[in-house]
Design brief:
The protein is mostly helical and about 325 residues long. The chain is about 70% helix and about 0% strand. It starts with a strand and ends with a helix. The structure holds farnesyl diphosphate and magnesium ion (2 copies).
Length: about 325
Amino acid sequence: KTTFMGIDMGSDEFSSGIGESLAKVEELLLAELSSGEDFLTEAATHLAKAGGKRFRPVFALLSSQFGPNPHASEVITASTVVELIHLATLYHDDVMDEAELRRGAVSANARWSNSVAILAGDFLFARASRLVSTLGPESVLIIADTFAELVTGQMRETIGNPSGTDPVDHYLRVVWEKTASLIAAAGRFGGMTSGATDDDIERLSRLGDAIGTAFQVSDDIIDISSQPGDSGKNPGTDLREGVHTLPVLYALTEQGPDADRLRELLLSASGERLPLTDDAEVAEALGLLNASAGMVRARETLAGYAERAYSELAQLPDNEAKKALTSLVSYTVERIG
Ligand code: FPP
Ligand code: MG
Ligand code: MG
């Protein structure tokens, strides 16, 4: 049996079908990234070769199982396009975040320079555009709109939430724009290219939205609740970067001495977010957060997105992809422990 992120991908016959499609996506991805001048190829293939879960193509391929033609070549093209767009944004994101590492490998900006990383990202976008043009104007429109959402989310995050507006609302909007929108587009593309009904295409898009948001929220919870060494990640990474995720935003609205102490640790006198540098302070903040009602609310929010995903799945026809997707949703809830 094939598993993806530890999730059962159905019977051998089905999962090897997905596996074969995924291998074709991988082949097309590397072919597109290696199709420029030699000096471009190394930088352009760098992040794809560094690994990654290929979550968006997997979701597009699973979504394609709801249409009559899951083996259409357009399904492979569409699945590759979403991964190319995702990878392009990561090159640019690492420049903006001045990240040294990506997927356990040195980032393109750290290895070469910001200019090389930005241009490599642009090259990926050019290759994605070229591929999506073969799918027709409707697909080009979807990718153009999704691209604008990604940029809007990144810009909204950069600017921060204006004073007097709800930080939770701001946070969830950024998550939708920056992450869920592309996963929703992956579901839409999988449905469209395999000839699914219009209703099912809309369901797959909403399913991608719910799964994408649930994944982000569960990541945020794990960054607070995990034990060091638990998942190969160190808890408190977001706090060290001064990033306030959903549980933190909820906890900061609470009353009482614990919430007061949390505000003292995480906010400056003028209310600016402070990155935590001291290990003892990180440990203290994590302790307060884990005991907070904010953490309970974040778990409830996650459960709400999982519920949305399940209700979209309930409307889709029964098949092996539906089983795999159902397991994927329960995994986002169960992995937080
Ligand atoms: C990672 O977030 C970033 C994204 C999911 C989207 C970034 C979007 C852009 C850079 C828009 C512009 C794109 C192009 C190609 C013009 P993160 O920094 O929170 O997470 P990380 O831990 O993966 O770095
Ligand atoms: Mg980043
Ligand atoms: Mg970023």
